[in-house]
Specification:
By secondary structure, the protein is α+β, with helices and mostly antiparallel strands. Helices cover 31% and strands 18% of the residues. It has helices spanning 25-44, 73-79, 104-118, and strands at residues 13-22, 83-85, 90-93, 128-135. It has a four-stranded antiparallel sheet with strand order 2-3-1-4. Bound molecules: zinc ion (ZN). Residues 50, 53, 57, 59, 61-62 line the site of zinc ion.
Amino acid sequence: MKIRTGFVSNSSSSSFVVFGLHLDPNKLRQAMEEREAKIRAETLKDWKRNVTHGEGCRCSECTPPKVPEIGGWCQIAEDAGLSYLVEERVVGKSPNAMKSDETKQQFITRIARIISETFYPVDPDQVQYIEEVEFS
Ligand SMILES: [Zn+2]
C-alpha cells in the first residue's frame, strides 16, 4: 500500500485494522501449491482411462477430468472469513469480529487457528495488532 505523506483531512483517509499477520510469501506459495495438488489428486483419484483404447487415444473416456481452478489467496482468505490486504499480504480479523464472551487471547488464538487451517501453521504469538491507513 502506498501512503502519501503530507497533510490530509481525516475524512479522506481510510484505515484497515486487524488482529492478524503478514503472510510469508514463500510459505504462502507453498501452501497454495499444496492446496492445488490436493484438489488435483482428489479430482483424479477415481479416474482411469479406457485401457482398451490404447495410449494415444483422446476420446472423452481417455481424457482426464478437468481440475477445478483454485482461487487466489485473497478469495481463499475471504471464504475463510478473514479480512485481507492484498499488497501487504495481511490477513486477520477486525477487532469488531471479537465475540462478546471472548477474551482478547481467545480471539487471537481463534484467528491463529483459522489462518493455520487456511494457509499454513502459525502460532498465536505471531498474531498482532495491524493498522494500515490509506490517504486518498
Ligand atoms: Zn479413448
